[in-house]
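Entry:
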Amino acid sequence: MRKIAVAFVTIALMVGLVGCSPLGDIELEAGDSGIYIEDDGAISYGSCEKFDKKYYNEDQLENEIDTEVSDFNKSKYSSVDDACSINDFSANSKEARLVLDFVTTYDFKNYMINFAGFEEDGFYIGSISDNDKCPIKGTFVKPHTKKTVTAKEIKNMKDCILVTYTPFKVQVDGDIKYISTNCKIDDDDVVSTSKNKGELSYIVYDIDQ
C-alpha cells in the first residue's frame, strides 16, 4: 500500500505555512514539502496536496492518516509510544494539508524510510558520525559567504546532517553551518534542496541537544 507521506509528496498544491506555524518561516509551493528542525531535535514535517477530485473523501483520508500514525507508533521503528503525532490536518474541495510532528530525528528518519518508502541511500537525518548509508560527496559552502569546504572535512565534523534526493524546504532552529552547492538559502535561512532527480543535497547543522 502506498503510504500517506508519499501521497503528500507527489500531489502538492501551493499553500503558505508561515509566521507562527509549526513550519516556522517555510512557505510551501506546488510540489514542495517542508521540514522544520527544532533546537531539541524534534521535527515538524508538512505538505499540502490537491484534493479537487469528486472521488476524494476527507473522512477516508483522515482515517488513513490516523491509522498510519498509529501503526508507526506501535512499530519497532518508533522510539516511544507517541513518537509521531498529527499537528494539523485540514481538507476542502481544493486542497488537503497535513503537518506531522516527530519527537526525535531518529523517529522522523525511521518513518520516512520504513513507512514513506524513502531509500536508505537517499535519505538521512542525524549526526554525521552515525551516517553509514548515504554517500557524502561534492563541495559545501557556508551560508551567505563564499567559504567552501570539502566532503572529507564534512565527514570529520561532529554536527548533524540532512541528506536527501527529494526536494524539501528546510529550516533549522539552530545554526546551519554548510549546505551543498546545489542548495539555495533565503534571507530567513530557509534552505531549498535540489530539484534535480537523483541528485543528493546536504545540509549540515548544529542544534542544542
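The first strand starts at residue 15 and ends at 16.
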